[in-house]
Amino acid sequence: MFLAVYLPYLAVLLSLSFLLLRKETFGHRMSKLREIFIVFFSTFSAWFSSYLLKNLFNTARPFDLFPNVVSIFPESGHAFPSSHAAFFMALAVAIFFYNKKVGCLFVVFAILIGLARIAAGVHFPVDILGGFVLGFLVSISIRHLYNYFSRK
Fold first, then answer.
1. Complete DSSP assignment for 86-132
2. What confidence tens digit (pLDDT) does each residue in 1-47 have?
3. pLDDT tens digits, one per residue of 84-103
4. DSSP reduced 3-state for 123
5. What range defines the domain where residue 91 resides?
6. Based on the number of CB atoms within 10 Å of its own CB, is 145 exposed (0-12), middle (13-18) or buried (19 or more)?
7. At CA 4, angle to CA 3 and CA 9, rounded to 5?
8. CA–CA distance, 114 with 84 (Å, rounded to integer)
9. Residue 86, CA atoms < 13 Å, CB-side half-sphere
10. In principle, which of 1, 6, 56, 86 could form an S-S bond with 46, CB 3.0–4.6 Å?
């Protein structure tokens, strides 16, 4: 329950703390704001993309298909891809671009959240995997777009 419901909030707070409390020199305040924008633009783009894909694929959740699966907490809507998995993998990958060690920690958070949502009965493994792939691709794409446009 903690990993599926409360760790996501903790991960967002930790990511904000990491991004805001990093040491900076005088001329780098704008680059810090740019980093924060890119990280959270990536995460919310992944979440929004998963929302659009959920309505396109229209898949049921485990507790809807199998009467013996009981969800630990209420969840509604379609299952594929997992919005939580997409959001937290995008967050982890975006942070990884700025700090590899901290990014790896957030990958672990994303995996734990995904596994917990499977154990809670609200997602199939393919939902989580789809969310991870989506979050990774969105974060990588936004980073490449940023690099492309910042060179011009």
1. HHHHHHHHHHHTT-HHHHHHHHHHHHHHHHHHHHTTS--HHHHHHHH
2. 667 667 877 787 788 787 777 765 445 666 777 888 888 999 999 99
3. 899 999 999 999 988 889 88
4. coil
5. 2-23+30-151
6. exposed
7. 80
8. 7
9. 26
10. 86
What's the one-letter identity of residue 15?
S
Per DSSP, the residues of 20-56 read HHS---GGGHHHHHHHHHHHHHHHHHHHHHHHHHHHH
**Which residue reads 């789809």 in tokens?**
130
Distance CA 37, CA 27 (A): 17
Give Rg (Cα) of the chain.
16
Provide the pLDDT confidence category of residue 76 given band limits of 50, 70 and 90.
low
Number of domains in the chain: 1
Angle formed by the axes of helices 125-151 and 100-119, nearest 10°:
150
